[in-house]
Structures are given as C-alpha cells and as structure tokens.
Amino acid sequence: MLLFLDTANINEIKEINQWGVLNGITTNPSLVVKEGGDFKSLVKEICSIVKGPVSAEVVSTETEGMVKEGRDIATWAENVMVKCPLTPAGLAATSILNSEGIKVNVTLCFSVNQAILAARAGATFVSPFLGRLDDINEDGIRLIEDIVEVFRIHDLKTKVLAASIRHPVHITKVALAGADIATMPYKVFKQLVHHPLTDAGLQAFLADWNKAKVAVSSKA
Predict the structure, then answer these.
(1) In this predicted model, what pLDDT tens digit does every residue of 122-156 receive, in sequence order?
(2) Which residue, 3, 28, 97, 153, is most buried by CB atoms nearer than 10 A?
(3) How many C-beta atoms surround the C-beta of residue 45 within 10 A?
(4) Would you state the pLDDT for residue 166?
C-alpha cells in the first residue's frame, strides 16, 4: 500500500519526504486556502518536491468548467493529477479528461456504487472517505473492503485511495482491507512511526552504550 500525505503545507511535505517513504500528495481547496498564496505556484512547488502523484482539485461544479481547469492543471507538472468530485458533472469531466490521457482522482466517494461509476468513467484513483462515514455511525473500513472486492471481481483497474483517515488504526485496517493507497494528515503520518517500546528500547541501548564508554575511559 502506498502512503500519501494529505496537505498543502510545504514544510510538512519536506519533512515526511525526507523519510524516504512518501509516495504522493493529495490536496483540496480547503487545504490550499489554509496555506494561502497562489494555487498554481503552490502545486508546482509540491510537484517539484515529491516524485509521486500530486492531486490538485478543480473548483468548478459544471463539466465544462472542470474539463477546462483539468486541462490547465495537467500542464503544471508531469506528476500532477486532476481531482474531480463524484457528481454527474464530475464523472462526465473524468471521462473526457481520461480520454485525453489526463489522470483523474475522483474524490468524495461514499458508496460502492459511486466507486463503480468512477471506475467506469476512467478514474485513475477513487477516494472513499472512510472517516466521514465513521463520523455518522457507518462502517468506513467495510466500504474500503467492499470496493476492493468488487474491483477485484470485475477486474477494474482504478486504484482505491483510502481518504479521510483519522488515526493510525485506520492505516492498519485499510492496509488489511486491500487499499492500494492511504492518504493521511501530517499528524497521523507522524504517529505511525512512534511506539513507546521503540522509544524505551532506544533509551536503554543508549544508556548502556554510555555506561560502557565511561567504563572504558576509567580503565584507560
């Protein structure tokens, strides 16, 4: 499973990218507005930092506007991906953009049927929002499992990108569910690496090492 960071913050991206485990970036209008500045310049900078796909979302609500924006976004960098909402207009735009060789991440997916439509429209990625389903007492992980299984049965090539990740347990569960990609906030990405036993073990090793150095020095 590939690991994406869901942010538009350059410092967060640079930090996680240094770990050597970052496979891509997802953004949305809310994240971009939070950072301020010019949308195009920000996306181009992100694309220059990260080698993998960088999703940049359209803001139009009509097919014609989405297609126009998508064509423009696709020229910004080789690794940029257009992000369209899972609406009738978004599906139509996805189909057109896909026919022109432009990769599309269809976002705001909340059902298996929506995921099938995205795949048939030619989406490269479809993004089910599992955390938002959990928020309303629906089973977000089950949705990921069901989409993965349906795509397997029907040999659909669209990748399942698990989005709206709330905590590290979500990452484990979507990996077990067979998601191709998981995208998460900076906070969750940082939480993945930490474990109290790792920290305690490292402290113990360093303490023993320092004791050994003191012992050798005293003998000298």
Answers:
(1) 999 999 999 999 999 999 999 999 999 999 999 99
(2) 97
(3) 17
(4) 97
The amino acid occupying position 115 is A
Domain ranges of the chain: 2-194
Contact yes or no for 161/182 (Cβ under 8 A): yes
Question: How many CB atoms sit inside 10 A of residue 171's CB?
Answer: 21
Q: How large is the angle between the packed helices 10-17 and 39-49, nearest 10 degrees?
A: 10
Catalytic residue, candidates 14, 83, 159, 173: 83
Residue 57 tokens read as 């979302």
Weakly modelled stretches of the chain, pLDDT under 70: 212-220
* Separation of alpha carbons 53 and 105, rounded Å: 10
Helix (H) or strand (E) holding 5: strand 2-6
Q: What is the DSSP letter of 52?
A: S
**From the CB of residue 82, how many other CB atoms can be counted at a distance below 10 Å?**
26
Active site residue 40: no
Please report, in angstroms and rounded to a whole number, the separation of the first and last CA atoms in the chain: 52
> How large is the C-alpha radius of gyration of the chain?
21
Domain 2-194 in CATH 3.20.20.70? The answer is yes
Query: Tens digit of pLDDT for each residue in 150-176?
Result: 999 999 999 999 999 999 999 999 999
